[in-house]
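Appendix B, example 12.
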Amino acid sequence: MLVHFVSPLSHYRAGQVLQHQVEADLSDDGPLSPERKKRKMTPTAPQATAVNAKSTPVPGSRPGEPPFQMKIEPDKYLNIKWKPTPVKMDVKIENTLKSRQTFKIKCTDNDIFRVRPPLGFINPGETAKIRITCTSKTLPENDRHLFAIYHMKSDEDKKTARQVWTTESKPEGVTRLVVVFEEGDEKKDEKKEEKDDKEPKKEAEKDEKKPDGEKKESKEEEKKEEKNDDKGKKEEKMEEKKDEKMEEKKEEETKDEKKEEKKDDAKKKDDEQEAKEDEKKKDEKKDDEQEAKEDEEKKDEKQ
């Protein structure tokens, strides 16, 4: 068997020849000079396309914004398994700071998203639960929607969160949750619904084969489950109504407090005005007494 030995020097020379041939192929008029090689081999920036021109949302805070200082779950992406019926997701914010914080949540589309509560307070060590509901009847596009969460320190006890957040408020922490919609859930739900429809039929067939006593028990259990489901739905509606009523009460309380403050200010002004009038009367009495003394002294001098 013959063995061909190739020295490293021959490899180096072959590489030089190959590089020379590549440079000659790239150039129109022979091998490239070092300066032309740099210009020829330097890649040019690609032109922007329709996909590159579209800005995709990025989770977290943007450059120049204060980072989010509390704990949030989920922290980057909000995965929503889309359905044509309303889908509910929970976001938890834990106040890991030593001071009381107020938060505010904004979304990209109020028509398809509902946030409860959108504003609120969190005491140190406590956790706020935010319910996000997607009501879109069609599957939204990905890389388009996000939720922006802001927070700042607040020691206000009399004001509501809506009153605390003004146009002049400066958040001390910002983060963003990018919404990701999972496709194909509708088909899965249809299959599940078909299975769910088949299961009651099978159970009904089994119930028919059972004795009368067992049939009654199974029907009673089904009625109990339906009642529990109805109770759960009613409780959710009651909770939403309670939150709305609480916000309304707080707004009314703040209005009443403002009215009382105005009344107190008016009383203070009246009291100050009365005090000034009393001082004037006292000064007038002093002047009268002084004039009376002078008159008496003049009479004594004449006598």
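The two ends are 163 Å apart (CA to CA). DSSP finds six helices and nine strands in the chain.
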